[in-house]
Design goal:
By secondary structure, this protein is an alpha+beta fold. The protein has 7 helices and 24 strands. The protein has helices at residues 12-17, 174-187, 206-216, 248-261, 326-341, 381-386, 444-447, and strands spanning 27-34, 41-47, 54-59, 64-69, 73-74, 98-104, 112-119, 122-129, 137-143, 192-195, 229-231, 279-283, 286-290, 344-351, 391-395, 400-405, 408-413, 440-443, 451-453, 456-459, 465-474, 477-491, 497-504, 509-512. A hairpin with a 6-residue loop joins strand 1 and strand 2 (41-47). The longest helix is centred in the middle third of the chain and has 16 residues, at 326-341. 50% of the residues are buried.
């Protein structure tokens, strides 16, 4: 199935720049939306100076409903590593920015509002919509593994040939792939965007976060200025790269960058170290849970998703998801409550539990095992079945794979803008091992057969993309449609990419309640 939507390579940058009076030089990260609620919304931005900014919000009729000055705070956790200094002229990185976070209150549920942030000589205007309480329809998008870094420009990912041995790279670089993906997402005007981990390549490297915000609230696109982001922690958010790898202290510092940028609803645990690691969003008829599956207990056991992380995250607080843990008990409470209150419940975390990718093998060291396996998270599947979860969204193996386990739909949607892998097990698997996923329903690498006309790809193949989820009510019954969208490169006869098209894999799912 495909839906034509050409011309997405329009002047998105020009549209952004037109929003400014006096230029964007005052802003390091443009205003973006966080923590939506029926009566509130958080608007965050980063500036070069410590001067307060002003946020004004108006209702659709033009009446002013909010006016407040920000209280900027030096973003000390956004420092550059010493290993990044060679990337800057004379080894001097930009000065630390100031973060502004303003909570807008007393809104009406499900209503549209205009807002303007005035920072120095810059006026930035956009719109948002408060969360509904009883909406008849909801649209949201999920992807994972954007893994932004400056080095993505000019870097084309490997593109394994199905049932072939030809060494190939993808048709465009990772920067362009992610940009086009976001353009198509923005054109669909979803209520929110969920990112199931690995937002950046290296969580401890500030340049990679700078790149993420260029795509989402900066010079290349400002999609997060109008559409809230719900992020999950992935293994790369725990990774400090040359600054310490997955070492405990380094991992803690890397995650602090994630927590600096994002504000999510309180999870009620009373543990500040758990902030933004796992949380719940209620949006009209749905509940959306975000789980932190980036490390399990006991350490370096069959229940651990990352053998490279030590026994805590640098703050002395374990983030286990296994039975008996704080997070497991929280998950069960939220699922039980959502079953009573919501039409559909969705869950996201990073490590996909059912996969033929490199992390689809059991946890462990040695032949046929993996030190960053997603299999330990299968421990949560009985909870999802007991409380009627509709779908679980993940990433990690950087492919489009759909599995069905006892009626629950599991997705690896790690095709946001980085890798486009082939399988490691099963048919065409790189290891030659039997499939590690008996529950597979669709794998783009195999099921979306490539059709070529000379040098031109006509249809099929594995590409960058996302899931679009539409929830609607009709005649008293509810349904969810999950559409696996891929961004297809239109090519000329010489094999050059000249445009893009929104298409849907032949794996659309409809769930009725």
């Amino acid at each position: 199935m495909k839906e034509l939507l050409l011309g997405t390579a329009t002047a998105a940058i020009s549209a952004v720049l037109l929003l400014f009076q006096g230029g964007p030089a005052d802003l390091v990260v443009y205003p973006y939306l966080q923590n939506p609620a029926p009566t509130g919304m958080t608007i965050t931005w980063l500036s070069r100076s410590d001067a307060p900014g002003r946020l004004v919000v108006k209702a659709a009729d033009g009446s002013q409903v909010f006016d407040e000055m920000s209280k900027p705070v030096l973003a000390e956790d956004l420092a550059y590593l010493s290993t990044e200094m060679d990337s800057f002229p004379e080894g001097k990185p930009p000065a630390l920015p100031y973060i502004h976070r303003v909570r807008v209150s007393d809104l009406q549920p499900g209503k549209a509002y205009d807002y303007t942030v005035s920072q120095g000589s810059t006026d930035f205007s956009r719109q948002f919509r408060s969360s509904p309480t009883d909406a008849a329809s909801v649209r949201f998008v999920v992807y994972a593994d954007s893994e932004t870094e400056p080095e993505s420009t000019g870097k084309k990912t490997n593109w394994p040939e199905p049932f072939g041995e030809k060494k190939r790279v993808y048709l465009v670089d990772q920067t362009d792939g992610y940009r086009r993906n976001l353009e198509f997402i923005e054109s669909r005007k979803p209520d929110f965007i969920a990112i199931a981990g690995d937002l950046v390549e290296t969580g401890g490297e500030q340049r990679d976060w700078d790149e993420f915000w260029r795509h989402n609230a900066g010079e290349w696109n400002d999609i997060a200025s109008t559409i809230p982001i719900f992020p999950a922690v992935g293994n790369h958010e725990n990774y400090a790269g040359a600054g310490g790898g997955y070492g405990t202290e380094a991992a803690g510092l890397a995650v602090k960058k994630f927590q600096t940028y994002f504000e999510t609803p309180q999870n009620g645990t009373g543990e500040s170290a758990f902030d933004d690691r796992f949380y719940r969003i209620d949006h009209g008829p749905i509940t959306f849970l975000t789980i932190d599956g980036s490390d399990g207990r006991p350490d370096k056991s069959a229940s651990d998703t990352n053998f490279l992380l030590r026994s805590d995250n640098g703050n002395g607080e374990p983030f286990d998801f296994n039975p008996g843990s704080i997070q497991y008990e929280w998950i069960e409470r939220q699922l039980a409550d959502a079953k009573q209150k919501s039409k559909f419940t969705f869950v996201q975390f990073h490590h996909v539990p059912y996969s033929v990718g490199p992390h689809g093998f059991p946890a462990g060291r040695g032949e046929g095992l993996d030190t960053q396996s997603g299999q330990p998270l299968r421990i949560l599947s009985p909870l999802f079945e007991k409380y009627g979860v509709a779908a679980v969204f993940c990433g990690h193996d950087e492919m489009y794979e759909h599995s069905v386990v006892n009626g629950i739909h599991y997705y690896d949607i790690g095709i946001g803008g980085d890798g486009l892998r082939g399988p490691s097990s099963g048919p065409d698997g790189a290891t030659g091992r039997k499939s590690a996923n008996a529950n597979q329903a669709f794998l783009a690498h195999i099921n979306a057969k490539e059709v070529w006309d000379g040098k031109k790809l006509v249809e099929g193949g594995k590409h960058y993309g996302h899931l679009e989820v539409n929830v609607s009510e009709e005649n008293g019954s509810w349904q969810t449609t999950i559409s696996p969208v891929y961004i297809f490169p239109i090519m000329n006869n010489e094999g050059e990419v000249i445009d893009w098209e929104r298409r849907i894999y032949d794996d659309e799912v409809v769930i009725r309640r």
